[in-house]
Amino acid sequence: NKRLTKSKKGGKKKAADVFALKEWYNIRAPSVFKVRTVGKTLVTRTRGTKIASDGLKGRVFEVSLADLNADEDQSFRKIRLCAEDVQGDNVLTTFHGMEFTRDKQCSLIKKWQTLIEANVDVRTTDGFTVRLFAIGFTKRRPNQLKKASYAQSAQIRAIRAKMVSIMSEQAGKGDLSELVKKIVPGNIGKEMEKSCQGIYPLQNVFVRKVKVLKKPKFDLVKLMELHGDANGDETGAGVARSEALVENVAGTGGRL
What is the pTM of this model? Predict the structure, then answer.
């Protein structure tokens, strides 16, 4: 019988180790954070026309702020870092967004108070377009007997307008790294809380989320300035050296 004598075509394929083709890279955070090396990421080795660094560029990493600043009190903020360039075995990243953790947002929302939210799109001085989301809650006045502390709709609109103007002013007059320095300690939230006291007393006012909507063209010089403090060098010296690189970088194009 032909069917019995016929051997099976092609034996079992040998299972190859997938990780043998991978390379590990260190993730480097910008100098605005205390801890610079935040972890490792892997990518398939360069083979033929497929370059390893191209597979890393644009990759987004989500890291807890507690790990970035070595402070457990800041664990409710998640920072997003986007890979911009690869230098040796280091992946250089830039700030790509921030968000509160789910449990922190849930812990703020309670009964007998009004939740007020606002958002605004702002362009920073270095060409980034960011969207900021603010959140705040009404507070009981001192010696208040009534259980609830609800704001009227006109007061809510006035508070929201105040929040939008403060966020636009604070984010628009500096670059992205300055904005991160203001958001991390909660300076913008404190200012909003203070300026809205005349309308209605507020509590727990935060910038709960930051989204980077648009980026300027990729600039290696600016990226190196962001990561310039890695060896403890003065930033002024780094800028002076990078001026010579501008001619080489100009005209090479870039990515959004």
Answer: 0.76
**Which pLDDT tens digit goes with each residue over 35-62?**
888 889 888 888 888 888 888 888 899 9
Identify the helix (H) or strand (E) that includes residue 99. strand 90-100
Could you say which DSSP state residue 28 is in?
A: E
> Tokens standing for 37?
């090396």
Helix (H, G, I), strand (E, B) or coil at 202: strand
CA 37, CA 63: separation in Å to the nearest integer? Answer: 11
- Please say whether the beta carbons of 179 and 155 come within 8 A: no
Name residues whose C-beta falls within 8 Å of residue 209's C-beta, 6 or more positions apart in sequence: 97, 98, 99, 100, 132, 133
Give tens-digit pLDDT for 67-102.
888 888 888 999 999 998 888 888 888 889 999 999
Q: What does the alpha-carbon distance between residue 36 and residue 256 come to, in Å, rounded to a whole number?
A: 24
Q: Which amino acid is at 140?
A: R
Enter the DSSP assignment of 21.
G
Sign of the torsion angle spanned by Cα atoms 194, 195, 199, 204: negative
